[in-house]
Design a protein that fits this description.
Largest sheet: none
Helix content: over 70%
Length: about 160
Protein backbone atom coordinates (compact mmCIF):
# COMPACT_ATOMS: atom_id res chain seq x y z
CA UNK A 1 0.00 0.00 0.00
CA UNK A 2 1.39 3.39 -1.00
CA UNK A 3 1.50 6.21 1.53
CA UNK A 4 0.43 9.73 0.63
CA UNK A 5 3.95 10.92 -0.27
CA UNK A 6 4.49 7.91 -2.54
CA UNK A 7 1.15 8.49 -4.26
CA UNK A 8 2.07 12.14 -4.86
CA UNK A 9 5.47 11.15 -6.27
CA UNK A 10 3.83 8.58 -8.52
CA UNK A 11 1.28 11.12 -9.72
CA UNK A 12 4.06 13.62 -10.42
CA UNK A 13 6.09 11.02 -12.32
CA UNK A 14 3.14 10.02 -14.51
CA UNK A 15 2.01 13.62 -14.92
CA UNK A 16 5.43 14.74 -16.10
CA UNK A 17 5.85 11.73 -18.43
CA UNK A 18 2.45 12.22 -20.05
CA UNK A 19 2.98 15.97 -20.25
CA UNK A 20 6.33 15.66 -22.02
CA UNK A 21 5.05 12.88 -24.27
CA UNK A 22 2.22 15.23 -25.23
CA UNK A 23 4.82 17.53 -26.78
CA UNK A 24 5.84 14.88 -29.33
CA UNK A 25 3.01 15.55 -31.83
CA UNK A 26 3.88 19.26 -31.77
CA UNK A 27 7.56 18.56 -32.34
CA UNK A 28 6.88 15.95 -35.01
CA UNK A 29 4.43 18.26 -36.77
CA UNK A 30 6.96 21.06 -36.73
CA UNK A 31 10.09 19.06 -37.63
CA UNK A 32 8.55 16.30 -39.76
CA UNK A 33 8.46 18.39 -42.95
CA UNK A 34 12.21 18.96 -42.65
CA UNK A 35 12.81 15.21 -42.59
CA UNK A 36 10.11 14.17 -45.06
CA UNK A 37 9.33 17.24 -47.21
CA UNK A 38 7.05 15.25 -49.49
CA UNK A 39 4.66 14.82 -46.56
CA UNK A 40 5.01 18.35 -45.19
CA UNK A 41 1.30 19.07 -45.58
CA UNK A 42 0.36 16.00 -43.56
CA UNK A 43 2.67 17.03 -40.74
CA UNK A 44 1.34 20.60 -40.79
CA UNK A 45 -2.28 19.45 -40.67
CA UNK A 46 -1.46 17.05 -37.86
CA UNK A 47 0.19 19.86 -35.90
CA UNK A 48 -2.82 22.14 -36.29
CA UNK A 49 -5.44 19.49 -35.48
CA UNK A 50 -3.50 18.31 -32.44
CA UNK A 51 -3.22 21.90 -31.29
CA UNK A 52 -6.99 22.33 -31.52
CA UNK A 53 -7.55 19.14 -29.51
CA UNK A 54 -5.10 19.99 -26.74
CA UNK A 55 -6.42 23.52 -26.50
CA UNK A 56 -9.99 22.24 -26.24
CA UNK A 57 -8.87 19.87 -23.48
CA UNK A 58 -7.24 22.71 -21.54
CA UNK A 59 -10.37 24.81 -21.98
CA UNK A 60 -12.41 21.95 -20.56
CA UNK A 61 -10.29 21.96 -17.43
CA UNK A 62 -11.27 25.61 -16.96
CA UNK A 63 -14.95 24.58 -16.79
CA UNK A 64 -14.16 22.22 -13.93
CA UNK A 65 -12.07 24.84 -12.17
CA UNK A 66 -14.76 27.51 -12.53
CA UNK A 67 -17.39 25.25 -11.01
CA UNK A 68 -15.31 23.88 -8.14
CA UNK A 69 -12.77 26.64 -7.52
CA UNK A 70 -14.93 29.23 -5.78
CA UNK A 71 -14.93 28.80 -2.04
CA UNK A 72 -17.91 29.75 0.09
CA UNK A 73 -21.31 30.44 -1.38
CA UNK A 74 -21.60 34.20 -1.87
CA UNK A 75 -22.52 36.67 -4.57
CA UNK A 76 -18.81 37.27 -5.17
CA UNK A 77 -18.11 33.55 -5.65
CA UNK A 78 -21.17 33.22 -7.91
CA UNK A 79 -19.89 36.13 -10.00
CA UNK A 80 -16.46 34.52 -10.04
CA UNK A 81 -17.98 31.24 -11.21
CA UNK A 82 -19.95 33.02 -13.94
CA UNK A 83 -16.83 34.84 -15.13
CA UNK A 84 -14.83 31.60 -15.00
CA UNK A 85 -17.43 29.75 -17.05
CA UNK A 86 -17.58 32.63 -19.52
CA UNK A 87 -13.81 32.56 -19.95
CA UNK A 88 -13.91 28.77 -20.37
CA UNK A 89 -16.46 29.21 -23.16
CA UNK A 90 -14.37 31.91 -24.84
CA UNK A 91 -11.25 29.79 -24.66
CA UNK A 92 -13.10 26.72 -25.96
CA UNK A 93 -14.29 28.72 -28.97
CA UNK A 94 -10.76 29.80 -29.90
CA UNK A 95 -9.87 26.57 -31.78
CA UNK A 96 -13.26 26.74 -33.54
CA UNK A 97 -12.59 30.29 -34.73
CA UNK A 98 -9.00 29.40 -35.54
CA UNK A 99 -10.17 26.53 -37.73
CA UNK A 100 -12.22 28.86 -39.93
CA UNK A 101 -9.44 31.44 -40.05
CA UNK A 102 -7.10 28.62 -41.11
CA UNK A 103 -9.26 27.88 -44.15
CA UNK A 104 -8.19 31.27 -45.48
CA UNK A 105 -4.89 31.95 -43.70
CA UNK A 106 -3.01 29.12 -41.97
CA UNK A 107 -0.30 31.29 -40.37
CA UNK A 108 -2.96 33.57 -38.84
CA UNK A 109 -4.74 30.53 -37.44
CA UNK A 110 -1.54 29.20 -35.87
CA UNK A 111 -0.67 32.68 -34.62
CA UNK A 112 -4.04 32.89 -32.88
CA UNK A 113 -3.43 29.54 -31.22
CA UNK A 114 0.06 30.75 -30.22
CA UNK A 115 -1.65 33.53 -28.27
CA UNK A 116 -4.21 31.18 -26.75
CA UNK A 117 -1.86 28.88 -24.84
CA UNK A 118 -0.20 31.64 -22.80
CA UNK A 119 -3.68 33.20 -22.55
CA UNK A 120 -4.92 30.18 -20.62
CA UNK A 121 -1.80 30.24 -18.43
CA UNK A 122 -2.35 33.93 -17.66
CA UNK A 123 -6.07 33.38 -16.96
CA UNK A 124 -5.26 30.56 -14.54
CA UNK A 125 -3.07 33.01 -12.62
CA UNK A 126 -5.52 35.93 -12.68
CA UNK A 127 -8.44 33.76 -11.65
CA UNK A 128 -6.53 32.00 -8.87
CA UNK A 129 -6.95 28.57 -10.44
CA UNK A 130 -3.20 28.00 -10.64
CA UNK A 131 -2.87 28.42 -6.87
CA UNK A 132 -4.75 25.11 -6.48
CA UNK A 133 -2.22 23.20 -8.57
CA UNK A 134 0.62 21.30 -6.90
CA UNK A 135 3.98 23.06 -7.31
CA UNK A 136 5.31 20.38 -9.67
CA UNK A 137 2.28 20.81 -11.94
CA UNK A 138 2.65 24.60 -12.02
CA UNK A 139 6.24 24.15 -13.12
CA UNK A 140 5.27 21.52 -15.68
CA UNK A 141 2.46 23.64 -17.13
CA UNK A 142 4.78 26.61 -17.50
CA UNK A 143 7.34 24.46 -19.31
CA UNK A 144 4.73 22.88 -21.58
CA UNK A 145 3.11 26.23 -22.32
CA UNK A 146 6.49 27.69 -23.24
CA UNK A 147 7.43 24.82 -25.57
CA UNK A 148 4.00 24.64 -27.22
CA UNK A 149 3.89 28.41 -27.74
CA UNK A 150 7.43 28.35 -29.15
CA UNK A 151 6.44 25.56 -31.56
CA UNK A 152 3.46 27.63 -32.72
CA UNK A 153 5.60 30.72 -33.22
CA UNK A 154 8.18 28.73 -35.19
CA UNK A 155 5.39 27.22 -37.29
CA UNK A 156 3.95 30.70 -37.83
CA UNK A 157 7.25 32.19 -38.98
CA UNK A 158 8.19 29.19 -41.12
CA UNK A 159 4.80 29.28 -42.88
CA UNK A 160 4.53 33.06 -43.27
Amino acid sequence: MLNSASKNQTLELYGRCYGYLGLLPFLIGLLGPLLLPLYGGVFHHGFIIYSYLIFAFLSGTLWFAAIFHSGEASTQSENRQALGLGMAVLFSLLPFASFFIGLVNVPASVGLMALGYPGIWIWEGISGIRANYPLWYRSLRLQLTFVVTTCHLLFFFLRS
